[in-house]
Design goal:
3 domains, single chain, five-stranded mixed β-sheet
Length: 444
């Protein structure tokens, strides 16, 4: 593949040669036009001078004989009545008499002549010049004018070469800087003293490096968090498996097996939440489409109804009217599921969880309200942090559910808040989505 450096040189030098050629052609044409005007004037002047001499000095003109003399610049002829040649300044040129008077062209073999003729009493004066001589004169004059320019062409080519090399040198420095880096070097490239044309490229590369650094940091945090959080349940599972193996009494064995199953369930739930959290990290692919949030909430709440029934929780949903948003359906299912699951888990038996969807002037909102113990005001922001669990909380959990909810909300440019209910204990999680972007109407 040809480099930018060579491509620029080819185009610039080709353009320089093209301009030089056009300038040469234009100069030659202009010179030829001026030579024609000048030589036509001289043809007329010579013919007029001979016509005057034929009237002023008729004896001298009558004495002129063919082949008597020659003029290297012009062909001068005197013709007697009956198209008889009296005199020719170039006897070796056999040029006939023009049919008309004034300027005309006569073709003689491969040669063309510019002719001027006029009447001088009973004679005809005819002056002529070879068109080829005129062209040679114009070419010679054009070449003399273009010699300085032709001398400058190599100088301009060298200047173009130096300018292209110097202009592309910042790209070489950037490439060298990037080539020296490894997978852990994500510092931004230096944008100082860069040409205006290259600065947007470097700025875009710096943005990409920033996103890569965030993605790598998120990956490192995820691996560290996953290793830390999985260590405890795996250790517990190992101990529970040992208890099952060491239990001599059938009742103790059944209890140990039940504890082991619960531990496996909690570990599986933690793994699923870790996977959900990884899926919502910045840079993960998401397919956005127009969807009905009310319908999605109704379906998701229906899927979680058995969990609420098992905990004797009254789970209800109010989402009668369609509410459209732009979003990623799998991510929104995770958001709704985590909010409802969190409310069901932390609400005492016999409690109530209400899920509702609506819209107001600010956007489409989703609210999950419960009448559980609630969360102190000073901890309402911290509950969205990873692995954070309020002190003294008896309900088992990983502390990832609400962190994932906030990630999904951020992905959808939504605002999430934890509010106190209008009356009584409990908590209300409210997510407000922006209205969908209007789409252009299709062809009718």
């Amino acid at each position: 593949m040809i480099s930018i450096h060579k491509r620029l040189l080819i185009w610039l030098l080709t353009g320089l040669l093209a301009v030089s050629s056009i300038a040469g052609i234009a100069t030659y044409r202009k010179m030829l036009e001026e030579v024609n005007e000048m030589q036509d004037f001289e043809l007329r002047q010579v013919a007029n001078a001979i016509e005057y001499a034929s009237r002023a000095l008729p004896a001298g003109v009558n004495a002129l004989k063919p082949r008597e003399t020659a003029n290297p610049s012009f062909l001068v002829q005197l013709w007697r009545p009956g198209a008889r040649l009296q005199y020719s300044s170039q006897p070796d040129v056999d040029l006939p008499l023009a049919a008309g008077r004034g300027f005309s062209f006569i073709d003689r073999g491969d040669e063309r002549w510019r002719v001027f003729s006029l009447d001088a009493g009973d004679r005809i004066v005819q002056t002529a010049q070879s068109v080829e001589d005129r062209q040679e004169t114009a070419a010679d004059m054009s070449l003399r004018m273009l010699i300085p320019f032709l001398v400058l062409v190599p100088v301009l080519a060298v200047l173009v070469l130096l300018a292209v090399r110097r202009g592309l040198s910042p790209l070489g420095r950037i490439a060298a800087d990037i080539g020296r880096r490894d997978s852990t070097t994500m510092q931004p490239l230096d944008e100082g003293a860069l040409p205006a044309e290259i600065r947007p490229l470097v700025s875009a590369l710096n943005d990409l490096l920033g996103r890569l650094a965030e993605a790598m940091d998120a990956q490192r945090r995820f691996v560290a968090d996953a290793a830390h959080e999985l260590r405890t349940p795996l250790t517990a599972l190992t101990l529970q498996a040992q208890l099952v193996q060491q239990s001599a009494d059938e009742g103790e064995r059944r209890q140990a097996v039940a504890d082991l199953r619960q531990g496996i369930g909690r570990a599986a739930h933690l793994v699923q939440q870790l996977l959900d959290m990884a899926h919502q990290e910045p840079g993960s692919p998401h397919a956005t489409s127009r969807l009905n949030l009310a319908e999605l909430v109704r379906v998701r709440v229906g899927e979680l109804a058995p969990l609420a029934a098992a905990r004797e929780i009254d789970l209800g949903v109010t989402a009668d009217r369609p509410q459209w948003i732009d979003g990623d359906e799998p991510s929104l299912r995770i958001l709704v599921g985590n909010l409802v699951d969190n409310a069901v888990r932390y609400t005492q038996a016999g409690g109530k969880v209400d899920v509702s969807v609506g819209a107001d002037a600010e956007g489409v909102w989703l609210a999950v309200a419960d009448n559980g113990p609630g969360i102190p005001e000073e901890e309402r922001e911290r509950v969205f942090e990873r692995f954070y669990r309020p002190a003294g909380q008896p309900t088992p959990g990983s502390g990832l559910g609400l962190s994932i909810v906030r990630q999904v909300a951020s992905l959808h440019r939504a605002d999430i808040r934890l509010e106190a209910p209008a009356s009584g204990p409990g908590a209300v999680f409210r997510v407000r989505f922006p209205f969908p972007v209007p789409r252009e109407a299709g062809p009718g």
